[in-house]
Request: fold
Amino acid sequence: MQSLIDANGLCFSYAKEGANIDILHNLNFSLNQGDFVAIVGHNGSGKSTLAKLLNALFIPTAGTLVVDGVCVQDGQTAFEVRKNIGMVFQNPDNQIVATLVDEDVAFVLENLCVPSEDIAPIIDETLKMVGMYELKKSAVSKLSGGQKQRVAIAGILAMKPKCIIFDESTSMLDPIGRKEVLNIMKKLNCEHKTTVINITHYMEEVVFADRVIVMKDGNILKEDMPRNIFADRELLAKANLSVPQVTEFFNLLCDRCNLDSKTVLDIDECVSALSDLLGG
Amino acid sequence: MPIIELKDVTYVYDGTDNLKSRAIKNVSISVEKGEYIGIIGHTGSGKSTLIQHLNCILKPTYGKVYIDGVDIWEDKKNLAKTRKKVGLVFQYPEYQLFEETVEKDIAFGPKNLGLSTQEIEKRVMKAAQMVEIDQDLLLKSPFEISGGEKRRAAIAGILAMEPEILVLDEPAAGLDPLGKEKILKIIDNFHKYEKRTVIHVTHSMEDIAKYADKILIMNDGEVVSYDSVDNTFKDVDMLQNMGLDIPQITKVLFKLRQKGFNIPSNIYTVEDAVNVVKNILIEKEKR
Amino acid sequence: MIKDITLGQYSAGNSILHKIDPRTKIFTTVVYIFFLFFIDNFFCYAINFFVIFFLYSRCKISLKMMFNNIKPILPILIFTSIINLFTLRDGKIIFSFLFFSITDRSLLFIFMIFCRIVLLIFSSSLLTYTTLPIDLTYGIEKILKPLSKIKFPVDEISMMISIAIRFIPTLISETEKIILAQKSRGVDMESGNIIKKVKCMIPILIPLFISAFRRADELAIAMESRCYRVGQKRTRYKQLKFCYLDLIFLFGFGIVVSVLVLVNWFL
Reply:
């Protein structure tokens, strides 16, 4: 099967005051349709730049990036790429174009020249998918951060993309909003086989991904399953990353009590591991 | 005498006396000098409204606010004095930076206090040191430094005013883990070494469990609980019902307790949890 | 300040004026205002006021709301009227005192100007009371559409207006936040002379502008990411359709205008 995204020797740099500033160095990876991938790394590691390249908002300076059979190389191909890949940004306020919820969802359809009479049913369908149908006619300025972010997601789902990139989309939300957005990611990946790329700082979110790409200073340090990433403490220290609290706890416990090390990812795993230890 | 005292404070935001438009209802709390208070509640619970009462930004519709024993709305002259005593760091404070250099921006607050040039300079240096902003960064424009640095510069602008009480509204929101850790450390240091009172509003119990002396929980404009950290974490059920983000470790231990393991309820940091479980394991070995 | 610009002055309702196409309303309002400036008959003004009051009552807009928009210009209106009263010199003098004199013509003229301005505001407010700003924008876009043939960027301008409408509440709340933040940094905005007050604006305006530019930048990227291309053909979700109500309204409007023309020029 052909992969959805293929990066080969992908580089990106820009010129500033005469000097060339390298952001990404020689990245190689590929993603398949239906993957749920998390990209982690501290600020300045190049993850947001990578996201913008995947959406053809930036054009690679060297190497090739093929998205759904289209090579990202100029403005012409950019449009083709964006038809299949949507992006949800960090600040919910700065990505909603229209005043009313339904009109914002319509925006992408209008841009893709979908006939007017076909637009309304698509809006209803996508708003139902993100649980915002009841607020279809609301003014966007009246919504909470989480709700705005859901509208932004609907605005992308409307074009039925093969892949959605979430560029720190949960970082400005409160815990409730974050949970809502995360649930939508899971649902899309599970039920609609949409490829989800989640760029995040929250390690609790990383757990849900099938694969994690760890970045540092424009390089990919490692690409693996969350469990293996969280088990690799050397790597985490190198990339300046933390682990979920339960993972940290269990690691520390294993160290202190000289137990065989084991990586727990979430609360339930931790509870069952502990009950085995304490009860057995 | 408590440094902050709120007596039956109610705030109605649209002038009507509608029960619905009460952002906070009959809030009575007192804070002792030097305490670190964490305020928790989800969006719309009234926590931001509450803290804006502490430095004369909002005037209570009913009730009284006392800072250092003085009713802050008794006399108009109190306003400047109160703002000098209470430093308020808003959400995303980096959006209020405006001067040409970071140094000038940090100096803006002290300058408004009417201090001497030497005193201002001294305070700017001290504040910059507290938030770990280097000398060369001070001369840069606040718009060309990184997000985390901006946030710290903005906080330094308030610290330089040397407030008796430091109030922060989600100071770590939107930062990466490293940036967040730094901010939490700065606040803790200010509390510990400068012996100042700190009020820290946040969504994350995990963030303040380590630092706070007491936790105030707000829900729907009312104070649900105002107690020591130990006692607050005893009622995990209530916390969960309010949709609060409680630390994973608390949830784990709560579930274990439900399964019948004998684990104390006041554990909320990784360190304590490891020690508790370790002790149980050692006990088990002995048997 | 209009806090909620998404609704503007819109007052929800179910009247014919709420239901008809914005294009009809824009067209009739413009034509009506045009006519207003040719009318110089007392009886005509009476008819005008009657029609306007009738429409306001049908739309269930209170008298208080109706006069709200008059209030801000009332001082200017009164001031210019007084100036005119004493400076216009043609016609019979009906009252004089020292250097001042009032003529019958000037009195009549002032009365007419006064009525015209008031009617102008009443009628244009009626448009904004019954039409959402976004519908208004769309109506204007449709009306100006033929201009795109001569390379006038109608779509882009309409997009700009609707983005402006979308961002005004955001920027207002941002301004409020910045004001509070600077206040707690010791900016004293209440006291001091003009120069001091102007100086206080700097710490507010600079962050506001920077934030607005940052938002614009992010929004542009988000729009591009959502397949927006400047100057490319787009379809529209919102369709404006004339219905029989528009016809009825236009018919009624035609009658009113004909009556006005008859009364004003032939009676």
Chain C has two domains: 16-144+240-266, 154-225. Chain C touches chain A through 32 residues (CB under 8 Å). The two ends of chain C are 45 Å apart (CA to CA).
